[in-house]
Amino acid sequence: MNAVASINDYMQALGQRARAASRAMARASSATRNRALELIAQAIEREADALRAANRQDMDAALANGLAPALLDRLALSDKAIATMIEGLRQIVALPDPVGEISNMKTRPTGIQVGQMRVPLGVIGIIYEARPNVTVDAAGLCIKSGNATILRGGSEAIHCNRALAKIVKAALLEAGLPEDGVQVVDTTDRAAVGALITMPQYVDVIVPRGGKSLIARLMQEATVPMIKHLDGICHVYIDAKADLQKALDIGFNAKCHRYGTCNTMETLLVDRAVAASILPALAQRYLTEQVELRADEASYAILEGAAYPHLVRATEEDWSTEYLAPILAVKVVDGIDAAMDHINTWSSKHTEAIVTEDYSAAMRFLREVDSASVMVNASTRFADGFEYGLGAEIGISNDKLHARGPVGLEGLTSLKYVVFGHGETRK
Amino acid sequence: MNAVASINDYMQALGQRARAASRAMARASSATRNRALELIAQAIEREADALRAANRQDMDAALANGLAPALLDRLALSDKAIATMIEGLRQIVALPDPVGEISNMKTRPTGIQVGQMRVPLGVIGIIYEARPNVTVDAAGLCIKSGNATILRGGSEAIHCNRALAKIVKAALLEAGLPEDGVQVVDTTDRAAVGALITMPQYVDVIVPRGGKSLIARLMQEATVPMIKHLDGICHVYIDAKADLQKALDIGFNAKCHRYGTCNTMETLLVDRAVAASILPALAQRYLTEQVELRADEASYAILEGAAYPHLVRATEEDWSTEYLAPILAVKVVDGIDAAMDHINTWSSKHTEAIVTEDYSAAMRFLREVDSASVMVNASTRFADGFEYGLGAEIGISNDKLHARGPVGLEGLTSLKYVVFGHGETRK
C-alpha cells in the first residue's frame, strides 16, 4: 500500500468517526455543549505552559526551515493569543444556542402544523494555515452549533495543534460528549487535505481559512460544499449627492483602517459631477498614508492637477486586483448606473458601499448591487461577523447559496421541516 | 470547429445573455413581473391551437421513434394540461413577492443598522425531461422571484417548447422586461446540458427535474450548485406508544396514496412491543392493494402467522431501495434508538415520520432524525410544497445547505446583508 492510499484510509476512518460522533453532538443539550467549552477554556488556562512549550517546538522547526517572518508571526502563541482564545471561548458560551429553534410554525388547512427547526449541519471540515488559535476558535463554534469537526491546521503548527487537540478531547469526554466530536488531523501529509475535501459522505461542509492560493486550489478539487470567499475586491461609490464629510471619512477609512483585510476598499468610484471637488480633498487624506492611486484617465487629470505625488495610470488589471496594500484604484463614472455596471462586472461580490444623501440612489444601490454586503454611508470595513452582531465568525462567504456574507453560528446549521400531525393522511 | 465546440459557444452566449438579463429581472417591480406572468397566461389561452399543433409534431416524432407509452403520456399536452398551466401562472401571480423584503434589521453599538435583504439568485438553469408544462411552471417561478432562466427541456418536446418560448419572450417584452429573461435551449444536442452545468460564471444554480438516472449523471459533472434530490427512501416508525388507528391510517396512506412519488414510504419500522398486534391489522389494509411486503425475520414470522399472501423475505438491499411501486420493506426494531439508527443509516434524508403518543419520543425523533422533513403522526405524503403552504414548488432538496425539503420561491432567492449608515467609520 502506498503512502497516499494509507493517508486516504486514515482520513476515511477519521470521517467515519466524525459522522458517528455528529449524532451525539447534535442531540447534546445546550448546557452540555457550553460545559465542554468552559472546560476547554479552563484547561487552556491551566496548561498554558505545555502549550507554550509545544509552540516553541513549532517555532524552532519553522526558524530552522527559514519560514518567512510574517508566517512566524502568525505561528507564535503569545500570552495575549492564549488569553484571547480563552476569552473567545467564553464569548461563544454566552451566545444563544442556535440549535433546536423552531420558526414559521403554521397550521395548514389539512390540520398539520408545519414549521422549520434549526439543526446542526453534521460534520464541518476546517482547513487553515499556521495560526494555532484557529484550532480553538473553530472547534468552539462547531461545538456550540452541535456539529462534529475535523480540523486540518498548517503543518508548521502540528505540535501546538496536537497539544490543543488533547485538551479539547479531554474536555469533550469530561462533559459527556464523544471525544471524536473534534478531531485534529495528525499528519502533515498534504494528501490529507485532498481526502478531506472529497468525502461528502462524511463531511457536510468545508470552511477554508487562509490565503487566496489555498482556497483557489481547494475550489479546483473539492466535492464537498465550501463556505468561502476567494478575495475581497470592495468598492466605494461616491455619488453626485454625497455629503462631502462622509465621503472623505468613509473613503479614507475603507482604504486605510487596515490594508490586509478582505473588506478593505480596493477601488474608489466617483461621480463625474463631484470628482473635481472631492478627489483633491480625499487625496490630501491619502497623502498622510502615502497611498498609491492608480487612476483612470479622468481621475488622473484631476489628481495630477492637484499634484498628488503617488499617482499611477490604471490599467484594466487594476479593476480586478486585491492590493491588500496602500494602493487604490480610482475611476470617474457617469452616475449610479455606470458605477453599478462597474461593480457588477469587477467586484468579487464581497462588500460595496455608496456615499449619498439621495434616497432613490441609496435604495437602487442596495437592491441592485449583487454583493454579499451592500452599504449606504458606512465604511466597507464594517463587513465583519462581530460588527454585524453575529457574536463570532467562522468565515465570510461570497457565494449566494446557503450562507452569504459574514458567517456565524447560523451558517453552521440548516433548517429542516418539522410537521406536527394528529393522525392526518393525504386526501 | 467541431460540433461540441460550437454547442459550447452557443451555450456560453446564452449564459452571457442570461447574466445580462438577470440584472433587469432583479430590479423589475413586482407589478412588472406579475404583468409578464399574466401576459403569458393570456397568450397560452389565445394560442392554445398553435401549442397543440406543435405538440402534435412532437407526438408524431415520438411515436415514429417508438417512445415508451409512459413517456408519450408525459409528452402529451392535453386541454387539461393547458388549463393547469394557465391556472398555475395565476396562482404564482397571487403569491407574495419574495424579492426586496428586509428582515432582522438591528442597530449596532457603532450606529450602523444591519439587516438582510432577500434578493434573486441571478440565473437559474432548469433541466427536465419530456413534460412541456415544466417550461411554463419553471419560467413562472423564476420570473416571480426576479431571476433569469435557461430552460433545457427534453428533446422530445422541442417543438412545443419552442412555441412556449416564443410566447414567454413576447410577454416579457410586452411587460418591459428583457426577452433574454427566459431562454429555451434550442438544440437537442446533449452537449448543451454538459455546458449548462459547468458554467458557474453565468449560472448560479441548476434545478434538475427528472428521474434518478438524469440527476445521478448531472451530479457527476456539475460544477454549478444544484437544488436536487436523488431519491426518496422515506420511513414511517410505529412506536410502542402509537395510537392504533393513527398507525393504520398513516401506515396505509404513506404507502398507498400514490406509488410513484418521492415522499411515499418505502420502509416501515415497527417497535417490537406492538409489532404482533399492529402488523396483522395493517396487513389487512395492504391486502386491499396487494402490496408486496418484504419482511425482516421478526416481521416475517408475524405476517406469516397472519397468512399474508404477498410476503417475501427482505434482504439488506431492500433497506436502500426506492420501489415506487406497491412494495414495502418491513422491519421490527427494538425501540426508538434502533429505529433512528436504521433511518440515519439507510434513509435518503427526504422524509420520515413517527407515529406515537409519547411526548419525549416525538421530541427526540424530531430533533435527532437527520432528514429534510421530520413528522409526528402525519403521512409522509404531506412533504410537498403545496401541502406546506409554499404556494408552488420548483423542486425538493435532500441536501442540507441552502434550501432543504420542498423548495418554493424562497429557495430561488438569497439573503444579502444591507447596512444603513450615517457616515460611520471603523474605529
Distance between the termini of chain A: 58 Å
Number of beta-strand segments of chain A: 16
- Provide the CATH superfamily of the largest domain in chain A: Aldehyde Dehydrogenase, Chain A, domain 1
Mean pLDDT of chain A: 95
Helix content estimate of chain A: 40-55%
Biggest chain contact = A-B, 66 and 66 residues
The name of the CATH architecture of the largest domain in chain A is: 3-Layer(aba) Sandwich
Run of helices and strands of chain A = HHHHHEEEHEHEHEHEHEHEHEEHEHEEEE
Largest pleated sheet of chain A: 7 strands, parallel
Tell me the Rg of chain A in angstroms.
24 Å
Widest β-sheet, arrangement of strands of chain A: 10-9-11-8-7-12-13
Number of domains of chain A: 2
Tell me what portion of residues of chain A adopts beta-strand conformation. 15-25%
Could you explain how this protein is built, in words?
- Chain A has 427 residues and is α/β, with parallel strands linked by helices.
- The first copy, chain A, has two domains: 3-227 and 407-419, 3-Layer(aba) Sandwich (Aldehyde Dehydrogenase, Chain A, domain 1), CATH 3.40.605; 234-387, 3-Layer(aba) Sandwich (Aldehyde Dehydrogenase, Chain A, domain 2).
- In chain A, 44% of the residues lie in helices and 21% in strands.
- The first copy, chain A, contains 14 helices and 16 strands.
- Chain A has helices at residues 3-27, 30-46, 48-64, 69-75, 79-94, 133-144, 158-175, 191-196, 212-221, 244-256, 272-287, 297-305, 335-346, 359-368, and strands at 102-107, 113-120, 123-128, 148-152, 182-184, 205-209, 234-238, 265-271, 292-295, 311-313, 327-333, 351-355, 373-378, 395-397, 405-407, 413-424.
- In chain A, strands 10-9-11-8-7-12-13 form a seven-stranded parallel beta sheet. A four-stranded parallel beta sheet of chain A has the order 5-4-3-6, with helices on both faces. The first copy, chain A, has a three-stranded antiparallel beta sheet with strand order 1-2-16, with no helix packed on it.
- In chain A, helix 10 links the parallel strand 7 and strand 8 (265-271).
- The radius of gyration of chain A is 24 Å and the shape is globular.
- The model of chain A has no long low-confidence stretch (mean pLDDT 95).
- At the A-B interface, helix 1, strand 2, helix 10, helix 14 and strand 13 of A face helix 1, strand 2, helix 10, helix 14 and strand 13 of B.
- Strand 13 of chain A pairs parallel with strand 16 of chain B.
